Amino acid sequence: MADRLDADPVAHALAGGIGGALSMAVTYPLVTLSTLAQTKSSKTQDNSNDDGANEKKGKVSTLNAAKYLWKNEGFKGFYSGLESAIFGISLNNLVYYYFYESITKTLLTSKASRSNGGSRGLSSFESIITGAIAGSITCISCNPIWVANTRMTVKNGDSGKNSNTLQTIIQIIQNDGIGTLFAGVLPALILVLNPIIQYTIFEQLKNFINKRRGGKGITSLHAFFIGALGKLLATGSTYPYITLKSRMHLKNDGEGNKEKTIIGLIKQIYSKEGLQGFYNGLNVKLSQSVLTAAFLFFFKEELTQVSIKLLRLIKSRKGSLKV
């Protein structure tokens, strides 16, 4: 824990940003499939018999989504929007980990000063408060990137045209207004529950393992598995909200659905697709989220020490130059 108290939050932010980019690159095809499953109720069905002339209505399966992408776009279709996703997850993690670790460091320093050494980690309540604050700041500041990413992932396949994040954001502002960049913020804020659950589980398991190891901390392998478990429970419990957020990022999802209020969208999805509509793509989303989180925590654990040493080197160089 001494390392955590001494480390600059910037080091954690850099490690989280780079780790997020690496984990997203590894698992992105699953991101594409889950996004299509959440936003399309029929387009990705296997229509090989009628060449798409008469699309069948029904729930989307991962296999049909994969067939649709391969048939219409080939291998590159699985990576539509990758550039914005990597930029988004890097920025997302930079912001999140900076505030998360800053607040954590403040809490632990305060506890240490009050009890001559203090607690070895955050309590469950402290983890919840820390995650809520960091998650809310991250959610609002990064929402435009995820709106652009959802549009790129879904619509690049429809039009056959590729655009970058900046072009997509400009198009959204020109066509729909700047407020559209914050579409889905309310369900996204509700989804702050996701990292709260995830990081509370992670912190408590981390504290448990740390005690069992006599205060030696956790290894990258420990981080991989407890990060995966935390994300599994968090995503499984908040998935309907993830679907709502994805649908709200679209101006029109291709199925004639234009409803943008949460209550209206819930009614619309339920009337057209039933309860299943809220869970389209759940299996692939769980696989993607769990793997992405596992690799993120693994990479971050490895990269944090590198980032700490790098920042110390930069500061020492600056100090020597001043002298």
UniProtKB/TrEMBL annotation:
Cited PANTHER family: PEROXISOMAL MEMBRANE PROTEIN PMP34, PEROXISOMAL MEMBRANE PROTEIN PMP34-RELATED
MF-aspect GO terms: ADP transmembrane transporter activity; AMP transmembrane transporter activity; ATP transmembrane transporter activity; coenzyme A transmembrane transporter activity; FAD transmembrane transporter activity; FMN transmembrane transporter activity; NAD transmembrane transporter activity
Compartments in which it is found: Peroxisome membrane
Spans of repeat Solcar: 7-106, 122-208, 218-306
This protein's name: Calcium-binding mitochondrial carrier protein
Superkingdom to which the source organism belongs: Eukaryota
Membrane topology listed for this record: Multi-pass membrane protein
Presence of the UniProt keyword Repeat in the record: yes
Pfam families named among the record's database cross-references: Mito_carr
Family affiliation: Belongs to the mitochondrial carrier (TC 2.A.29) family.
Organism this protein belongs to: Wickerhamomyces ciferrii (strain ATCC 14091 / BCRC 22168 / CBS 111 / JCM 3599 / NBRC 0793 / NRRL Y-1031 F-60-10)
Keywords, in A-Z order: Membrane, Peroxisome, Repeat, Transmembrane, Transmembrane helix, Transport
Annotated Gene Ontology cellular component terms: peroxisomal membrane
InterPro entries membership: MCP_dom_sf, MCP_transmembrane, Mito/Peroxisomal_Carrier
Transmembrane regions: 12-33, 181-201, 221-242
